[in-house]
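Task: encode each sequence below as structure tokens.

Item 1
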Amino acid sequence: MEESGRSKNQTTPLMFKLIDIYIIKRFLLTFVFILALIMSIAIIFDVSEQIDDFISRNAPLEGILIDYYLNFILFYGNLFSPLLTFLAVIFFTAQLANRTEIVAILSSGVSFRRFMWPYFVSATILAGVSFVLNNYIVPEANKKRIAFESTYVHPYRRSMNHGIHKQLKPGEYIYFDKFNSKNNVGYQFTLEKWEGIDLKSKLFANYVKWDTTDSKWVLENYYIRTYSENREHVVEGKRLDTTLAFTPDEFVGRIEDIQRMDVNELDDYIAEQTLKGSSNVPYYLVEKHSRNALPFSTYILTVIGVAMSSRKVRGGIGAHIAAGLALAVTYILAMKVTTVYATNAGLEPLVAVWIPNILYGILAAYLYIKAPK
């Protein structure tokens, strides 16, 4: 009897280890399966949309497969990995529930908290991979993908060209009403120089154009006002060739180009654009904070997924998947709404990015408490 008791005590930890390995293996395999399925569908739709551009612009097959679609999978697969993890958890756990395997596991004396352990291990693996991809690998992949897109898919660069405000250095500011990136021409240009609260000089020109030969700016219909000791001095003219501390490249580009920067490059770029007073800084901060918030959401969505699908319900796996998809849609909607508030309504980007995680973290805690024990 004693030997039998010792044998039972020795096999119980082994049984738990086997359960852990079983759950981790099924979790990760289900995630890979769903990722492959979703990415295959996405590629099919993308090919049908881009095939005419590939043919008309003679895109090389190697570039299509490697530079574009391989990096396409890295970017979009990583972008939606928390939601794909959520669907994997729902699908796999609902199968366990329908086969009453969860009932058997909990009835054997395993607590629900202990049952969650292999899920957290799997979520940690996926979140860690996502973090590294977000901050280091995907930006490198995006360089090739975006370069391919710019050459063969939509060969243009969208200019951020309306109401441009920039700080060149402390106390020195420029303004364009509009900048035409195609011709390197600006309209209603102003350059102001300040010392504290005192305006020292102001340059205004109706029209400015970049001279590519001499790397200078050509100002037309300009005037320069300087202020010294309560006196004003005005210089006017029809044309002025001059050098200024900026080039047209600073007004050309796509906000999406920050996707090509790793975490260190992005931090440096944000510091530079903040100094210059760029109006696009909120977009850059949203991108920066999202790279950390999205991997963390893997944990939250994993808890929600297990709590939702661990109970056997009428409708089986289909009901669990339908409920999971509905919840995933609301999560995406919450991310979009808070991002819009950050970029257009002045909401702090860090707060905006983490609000969905906070709200769904509360939901995860509630569902965990209510989950069958």
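Item 2
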Amino acid sequence: MSALGHYLEEEGLATVVISLIRPQTENTKPPRAVWVPFELGRPFGPPSAGAFQRRVVLAALRMLEPGNGPVVIKDFSDDDPRATADPTWQPPFTPAAVSAGPTSLAARLEAEILRLQGAHERWVAQ
């Protein structure tokens, strides 16, 4: 997304990147970026933390204020509000079962979809 930001800016659209990997952001030098110290896949912080996530979004939007650019990387001021990872989290199926299954990519994808179906149904019900 960092490189794409330059093309969008050339067309007159202001951009802000929310960065999870600071060295990559420093190398690609997007027009504006907020680096966040969160785990990969969670650029706005932990799930179910709406007020905290709102602060991340507002920090990114503040980067659009005049004077922020052409290349600026700011650190988000707070760490993930959870001191440790959620000890109750576990994958919906055990990866060990995957190696004993089918070998073609299509067959492995189909098998994975079937293994995830129960977790998906529980999520929809919730």
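Check on item 2: The first strand starts at residue 17 and ends at 19. The CA atoms of residues 46 and 82 lie 8 Å apart.
End of task.
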